[in-house]
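In practice, a research group might receive sequence data for several interacting partners and want a quick structural hypothesis before committing to experiments. The following worked case mirrors that situation: the sequences arrive first, and a predicted assembly follows.
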Amino acid sequence: MSMVEDKKDAKTAKAGARRETPYPEHLVRETPPYRPGVMRVPVDRFFKQAYHDLEVERIWKKTWQWACREDEIPNVGDYVVYEIAELSFIVVRTAADEIKAYWNSCLHRGRRLCDFNGKRAEEFRCMFHGWAWNIDGTMKDMTCGWDFAGTRDEVTRLPEARTGTWGGFVFINPDPDCESLEDFLGELPDHYEGAGHDFAKRWAQVHVVADIACNWKVAQEAFLEAWHVNFTHPQMVRTPGDRASTGMRWDDFGNWMRNTPQLPTDKYKNPPGYATAAETEQQVVDQRWGFHLNEDPPIKVPEGEKANEVIKNVIREYHRSVLGDAIDDYHDVHMGGGEMVHIWPNMHPWGGFSRLLYRFRPYKSDPNRSLMDVVLMAPWPEDRPRPPPAPPHVLQPGQSIGDAPELGQLARIFQQDLANMPFVQIGLKTSRQGYVILSDHNEAPVRHWHDLYNKAMGFENGDYLAEESNK
Amino acid sequence: MTEVKKRALRKYYYVAFKQMYEEIAEGIVKVTNPDGRTGVFQWNGKYLEGDLTQANLHMLVWTGGPPLPEAFSYHWIETPIDVNRKSGWPAPYETIVDYQIGQW
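A structural hypothesis for the assembly, expressed as tokens:
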């Protein structure tokens, strides 16, 4: 037997063993189906100012939220201006192992202290009358302090938001009495790091911010469930005769929920998948990479083989070029893209080797406008210096996400989602019915999200803002 | 209509409705029904001409929506990476990515 054949046999044997490997523990971990039943949600919350104003008080001032990445502020004094609704915070590295966040408002007359992200700051000085604080938040310079008798104690420190980190993400919570980030996230870190997908080791390769003419909840709900894929992304089809494997499971972990493919190990029954069956295996590969019929597809399914196997092998071999043979430590189930996580209130990292990460934010005080961050978190070899994270490529209002080609085919997929969102916003305002209906299984994560929303907003006993407006 | 010459026009089969969607000019899509009827639409869903007067908006977007530059025609899982380059992007893409980011 030649050396080449030896190597080929060894590789085949390893691949075979890989497929027989038990499913990853974090994916086998299952929760009972989410509270059964449909849900009716009043439409008012998607466009009325009163909801936006209450969200600022009860969500954005009270909740852990992803503000930036640690590698955006690698050096002492580096800072990011994180803005959510009409609130603004300075997130600054104050020591090699310490990150602080301050309310971005001068304690004199309230001017925003920092207007842009910055590097190696030694102070935060207000551009109105010149008061300044050190980066550790202590008062540095109270210009004309003699004129403010009896007030120095009030301005000696910038008010702080709490900070925490997970997977290289910096979170803040403006509420000084909040639970710790560790308690808030629960077992989430174990699910990623335990599965060998530590975000702290990944590179933020692409960061696009789309400005969308709809409420931030409308934009987000387009990504909370996968059912819309069947109609909004009709080019996506499942392999013939493989309906069961496209079924999905929702796991509820409190402040976060997860969508995974159904596994043979599942204890709880879920409905089979709904995706349209392709007529040929090649159609599945074509849709996966966006190949069209006027081109010779660069990837072809050999006679008698299954498209899903071809896709997994292509993805595995691609990642081998980045991670080397360490890729063989990962189960085939990691090669797909069907694992999504939704962290309350607005962060969506995917699982496995999907690079997708979304965030949805209200745009300043406008309940009819939102910002959607799309970040691609790429695996990167540990023994090579990691490139700096991509700065945000901010699209202008109404600008096509197709103008962010660094997203690749994903830009075209988002064009389909964006062909819905502004029109959902218009339709919700027009709604004579006055509410939307969320389904039992396919829209369970949207119901889960609205349950958390109702709790945060004080709507456990009914949406009193909607009731007041409908009197 | 502006003829598209520099890239291959896109053509997709819509499996669920057994229809063919063909880009015939920039932003213009011809749809052929299994019964032989055809219709021409703008990529945003507006009907232009033909016996077939309705089509799937999202197939129109997919077929006739703004095209990507050829260099970026990859799927997100496989977004190119070059671990040997400081930027992380392969050389052919690097300048284009810098240009894009420089716009904001």
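Before designing any experiment, note the following. The radius of gyration of chain A is 24 Å. Confidence is low (pLDDT under 50) at residues 1-8 of chain A.
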